[in-house]
Write a structure and sequence with these properties.
This protein is an all-alpha fold. The protein contains seven helices and no strands. It is globular, with a radius of gyration of 17 Å. Keywords: DNA-binding. This is Helix-turn-helix transcriptional regulator. It comes from Fructobacillus broussonetiae.
Length: about 100
C-alpha cells in the first residue's frame, strides 16, 4: 500500500530521513535496554555474562553507539521479557523466544 505519491516525495532527502529515523530508533532502543537492565537490578557485567557478550558491547548498546543485530536484540528481549516485549511484539519474536531456555538471574 502506498500512502504517499511520488510527486509528494520530491524535495525530500530520503537518505537524510532514513538516517534520522535510524538515529532516533537507536537512541530510543538504547534507553529501553538500559532502563530494563536497571529494573532487573543487573550490572552491565552481569548482563554481558548472561548473554555471552563483552561488557563493552553492552555499554555500546546502552549508550546508542551501536545498534544490536537481530540475534542480540532477541536475546535482550528474552532476558528483559516484560520491559521489552511491548516494543517488539510480533509472531516471529514470540515463536523464537518460546524455543529459548529460561535465563536465570
Amino acid at each position: 500500500m502506498v500512502l504517499v505519491g511520488k510527486s509528494m516525495l520530491k524535495g525530500i532527502n530520503q537518505k537524510r530521513v532514513e538516517t534520522e529515523l535510524r538515529v532516533y530508533f537507536q537512541i530510543d532502543l538504547a534507553s529501553r535496554i538500559k532502563s530494563a537492565r536497571k529494573v532487573h537490578g543487573l550490572s552491565q557485567a552481569q548482563v554481558a555474562a548472561l548473554l555471552h557478550l563483552s561488557q563493552s558491547a553492552i555499554s555500546k548498546y546502552e549508550s546508542g553507539q551501536v545498534l544490536p543485530d537481530l540475534l542480540v536484540l532477541l536475546s535482550f528481549c528474552h532476558l528483559y521479557k516484560r520491559e521489552l516485549e511491548k516494543s517488539f511484539d510480533c509472531p516471529f519474536f514470540r515463536e523464537y523466544q518460546a524455543k529459548l531456555p529460561c535465563i536465570e538471574d
